[in-house]
Amino acid sequence: MRRLLPATTLAIGLLTLLPAPPATASTPDAPPSLSASLLTAPASTAGDPPPQAGPLLSPTVSTADDPPTLAVPSDLRATEVSFTGAGGLAMHGTVLSPVGAKTALPGMVLVHGAGATLRTKLMGEAIAFAHQGLSVLVYDKRTLGYSLFHRSYSQLADDAIGGIAALRAQPGVDPAKVGIWGLSEGGWVAPMAAARSKDIAFLVTVGANAMQPLRQQTWAVAAGLRKAGVSGSLIDHAELNLYRTIADGGMFPEPYYDARPTIAAVRQPVLGIWGVDDLLTPPVENPPMFAKALQQGGNEHYTFRYFAGADHAAHRTPDRGVTRLPELIPGYADLVGSWVKDVTSGKYPTVRVSGPPPVQVSPSVPVDPPAWWASAWAQLAALVLFAAGFIGYPLTALVRRLRGRGRAPVSRAARLLSATGLTAVLGSFCYMFYLVMTGGKLAAPGPVLAGRPLIWLALQAVAVVAVLATARTALSWHRTPSPVPPTERTRFTLLLTAGTLFIPWSLYWGLLLP
């Protein structure tokens, strides 16, 4: 709670100043981020009564990135199940199986990406895999203990293990042939469950990461900005440092989770799938990291496949990953079905990587925890000082004028410093939070000139003026004849202190860098 307080205070105050973000193609399976979901509460909990099959799964109109809920086809049987997740939480799901199967079938539990999503989100995948001859369990994700600011991959893994037990107990399912599938955030969760449970026969991941969540997320937002034509200090300094602050303040869950030891502990055969046009997970860097971890653990039974024309979730995309269509990429479900049948029949694969090379325009960069002087508490303290100096100076002048005690300012540059310093600080934070909220694959930085958004260029110009005004104010103060009233001395001391601190602060956030 002590770590969460400074970043929460900073964020909530600035978010009230933000304009409403434009509609984007963000999806619940995107990795965790500070997004518009800050302003919304979860719609349901995993302990609520499960939605029923039938009319509630009828097709509805939706956007391309919000796939329609689907009716269960007549050749599949839907069975409602309940099971116990981590901490004794009641979980609810649906098992889809082919009608009229003659033998016990392999089974697969689907683990959601980020967001407190319902089973209907993955119903398209569940139907496609069931049509491949699998019994598939898809369940409502927990919301108890899961939020934008807090979640536990370990807890989610235990939920998935509970689902494995429920599916293994279903009639018509071969309990020795039940595995797990994880998408995006589920690509961190599913390997953890596989490493813990010998009841899991295989592991399938889609859009998975072997790198730390914070590193992945900063890459995704930076990639979206670069796609919009942005370069320079906004990406190299401002965006990275904002995420450092968010993570240090406890507002980014599991920021430094290292998946590699967990992946190295996986002994089951692994199928890893990545879309060539993945804009949310670095698709060039993660597969080799994943493979290296498996090999370090002695696991040579893995198959990696890249799909052309596929996005982060292996859905079709018409515009290189920006828009997600409802349809799975052709060949994806077929590959999962045939691979699962092979590995559950004892035909373990040797190392095999196939498909066209993925596209990744820029590399990810490590995002280390901030030094003490750049921590969330230090940033909050700086904001308090800026408020005292930049707001306090004109406020006290206004109070004096209302009381009829106005006096000529020691320097008119002080007024300029107060105005430009406050504008640069509030404007830069508001703009950065806006970019994070609308970031990812549909970044909306506004008009861009020479790699810099015009808004950012304007804020940089204001910051330069604030620095010059600081120097001019300091010089005027030095030349002011004594005596100076104590209240005036206090005002100027606060203002000059804020202006002096503003210089290294602006360098840290990239306002004074190209």
TrEMBL record:
Annotated EC: 3.4.-.-
Source species, domain of life: Bacteria
Region (Disordered): 24-67
Membrane-spanning residues: 372-395, 416-434, 454-471, 492-511
Domain Peptidase S9 prolyl oligopeptidase catalytic residues, every copy: 157-315
Keyword rRNA processing annotated: no
UniProt-listed InterPro entries: AB_hydrolase_Est10, AB_hydrolase_fold, Peptidase_S9_cat
Example GO molecular function: hydrolase activity
Residues annotated as signal peptide: 1-25
Segments of skewed composition (Low complexity): 24-46
Record keywords, A-Z: Hydrolase, Membrane, Signal, Transmembrane, Transmembrane helix
Protein name per the record: Alpha/beta hydrolase family protein
